[in-house]
Write a structure and sequence with these properties.
It is built from 17 helices and 21 strands. With 585 residues, the protein is α+β, with helices and mostly antiparallel strands. A 10-stranded mixed β-sheet has the order 1-2-3-12-9-14-7-6-4-5. A 4-stranded antiparallel β-sheet has the order 8-13-10-11, with no helix packed on it. A 4-stranded mixed β-sheet has the order 15-19-18-17. The longest helix has 24 residues.
Length: 585
């Protein structure tokens, strides 16, 4: 099924390319006077329509490509003209909406439990469900100059309680989509857009993954309004049921690092949002959009119906009104910025120097300001180390290409175990259980005595010589049999796995030989999580041993090596994963 969906997506992409720009972008929001300044122009909303023929109605799969969401607009046109700059509304030809909407979102609706709130609450990726409350005395804004009262929410961890309040009191609700839906949508769209180089950790445990995201589920009630605000994420909204009116205005901050949320009653967020905005715009004021101050251009609106896809970039003001009750999902995508990854790398460079590792002291014999002044004089030379080794030392080739997506497995429910415990057992079964319990206790005692580290069970070991998972078009920069000048990445560290495991391994024969652990760019966060970590084997490890010895005696000096045929696969592997780089590249 997955291959069929991929083939259909490829076919649609080819048809979209043939149609060209004039066909794919059928309607662009009018911008008024062509001579108007940027301050006067309305927000750009490009609207495209897919055809009335059944074959031209693309069904959105669980892991969609851009062509599945945006057809007939080509992905290349979206990436070059719309992403991070303007909004996009993908809808059906007028008069065909109801018939084709069901086909358009049928797969997603099925994965979303046919939009049943009870199942969505129970299977949410989030620990709690949020119910939105609004001041009934000022729900239409008549007592506040036309502005809606700020949204207040209550956080409920019990799905049954949340369901009861949603049904009986009519509260609009928000929670994250089920893990299967969220992980597939986020992984696919990060890869398709290239945000964060498509890097994604579905477990959410990584502190250094360059790509992140979540899928928000909004269950709107009739007349619910989410007032003006802007986000710091790139957003793809898919309307599964119901109808909404989106009103937008261009913001003044491109690529914001925080949103602005005056629609939500959270006074504690104001200071952090203002601090972030004032980094690039000192005129910015917290509150609803003000033309010429926090917003520019005039306001535009669009009605989003079932089956529609609506993209809007980070920093764009928007207000959302529920015309008809329904369910929508919003894929929010985030990526690390260049400042973050560069500062993380610089911190690792600084940590290599004991002067920078000194704790800050302020006493009669040590003044912290004077000491820091001395350090700052040498800072340019530290930065030059990064420049000398090139940008690939910070973002190695392996990070430029999205990894294969593997969905995280959900933990077994304790309820299933408890149900099994309630099943009546025979006397024979009970005796078997007692024997198993005794055996288990014996195994625990043996384990506690030996405390051995079984690396075979804890590590995925890559065969470096047989590794061939290189992206199409990537070149290592040299050929087998050539002599090449190589630099070791100062942000990398190579260890023998036996050095890590031998202390706790009582049987030295079990301590694996010829296996190495490579970590790249790891000292820029408190937990020392590595941006790249790979465990690999080298059957004829003399080449790695040579590099291993070179690393321990060399200080930022290149090495001239002849790369024979037998060592070429390993050298290529180490360049790809960021341990080595070729001089001048």
């Amino acid at each position: 099924k997955g291959l069929q969906e991929e083939k259909l997506s490829d076919d649609r992409e080819k048809r979209a390319s043939k149609k060209g720009t004039s066909r794919s972008v059928q309607k662009r929001a009018r911008t008024g006077d062509e001579g108007a300044s940027e301050e006067d122009k309305p927000v750009q909303i490009q609207k495209i329509r897919y055809g009335t023929q059944s074959k031209d109605v693309p069904s959105i799969p669980l892991a969609p490509k851009l062509i599945d969401l945006l057809y007939p607009l080509s992905p290349d046109e979206f990436m070059s003209k719309i992403l991070r700059s303007s909004a996009l509304h993908v809808t059906c030809e007028e008069g065909e909406e109801e018939e084709h909407a069901k086909r358009r979102v049928s797969t997603l609706c099925k994965e979303m439990f046919d939009l049943e709130p009870e199942a969505l609450f129970r299977e949410s990726s989030s620990d709690s469900i949020f119910l939105w409350l609004r001041d009934k005395n000022n729900n239409d804004g008549s007592n506040n100059g036309g502005k809606q009262a700020p949204i207040r929410s209550i956080e409920i961890s019990d799905p049954d309680t949340a369901l009861a309040l949603h049904k009986t009191a009519g509260h609009a609700t928000y929670c994250r989509a089920p893990p299967k839906v969220e992980q597939n949508l986020v992984a696919s769209l990060l890869k398709e857009t290239g945000l964060g180089c498509g890097q994604y950790d579905p477990s959410g445990e990584s502190l250094v993954s360059m790509g992140r995201g979540e899928v928000e589920t909004f269950i709107s009630t009739n007349g619910h309004v989410t007032d003006w605000h802007f986000d710091f994420q790139e957003n793809f909204t898919i309307q599964l049921s119901g109808t909404k009116r989106w009103t937008l205005q261009q913001g003044t901050i491109r690529d914001p690092i925080r949103g602005c949320t005056p629609h939500y009653a959270a006074p504690e967020a104001v200071e952090s949002q203002l601090k972030a905005a004032h980094l690039f715009d000192r005129k910015f004021r917290f509150g609803f959009p003000e033309t010429g101050v926090t917003a520019r251009g005039s306001v535009m609106s669009v009605v989003v119906k079932p089956g529609d896809v609506f993209y809007f970039p980070a920093g764009m003001w928007h207000k959302v009104e529920a015309i008809e009750p329904g369910v929508s999902i919003n894929v929010s995508l985030m990526a690390s910025n260049y400042a973050t990854v560069t500062c993380q790398a610089l911190q690792q460079i600084l940590h290599r120097d004991e002067r920078w590792r000194e704790p800050i002291l302020n006493n009669s014999s040590h003044n912290p300001v004077h000491h820091l002044k001395k350090l700052l004089r040498d800072l340019p030379s530290m930065i030059q180390q990064l420049e000398r080794h090139g940008a690939a030392s910070i973002i190695p080739p392996v990070l430029e290409h999205p990894p294969s997506f593997v969905q995280t497995q959900e933990e077994e429910e304790e309820e299933e175990d408890s149900e099994l415990d309630d099943v009546p057992q025979s006397e024979e079964d009970e005796n078997d259980d007692e024997e198993e319990e005794e055996a288990r206790r014996g195994e625990e005692e043996i384990y506690s005595e030996s405390a051995e580290l079984d690396t075979e069970d804890t590590e995925d070991i890559v065969n470096a010589e047989g590794f061939n998972d290189y992206p199409i078009g990537w070149s290592v920069g040299f050929e087998a049999g050539s002599r090449v000048r190589l630099w070791r990445n100062p942000l990398s560290a190579l260890h023998r796995l036996s050095d890590i495991s031998s202390f706790y391994c009582s049987d030295q024969k079990k301590c694996q030989k010829g296996i190495f652990v490579l970590n790249v760019n790891y000292a820029g966060n408190e937990m020392h999580q590595s941006v790249v970590r790979v465990v690999f084997s080298d059957n004829a490890n003399s080449f790695v041993d040579e590099l291993y010895a070179w690393e321990r005696k060399s200080k930022d000096k290149p090495i001239d090596l002849l790369i024979p045929e037998e060592n070429f696969p390993l050298a290529k592997f180490l360049v790809f994963h960021g341990y080595l780089h070729v001089e001048g590249m």
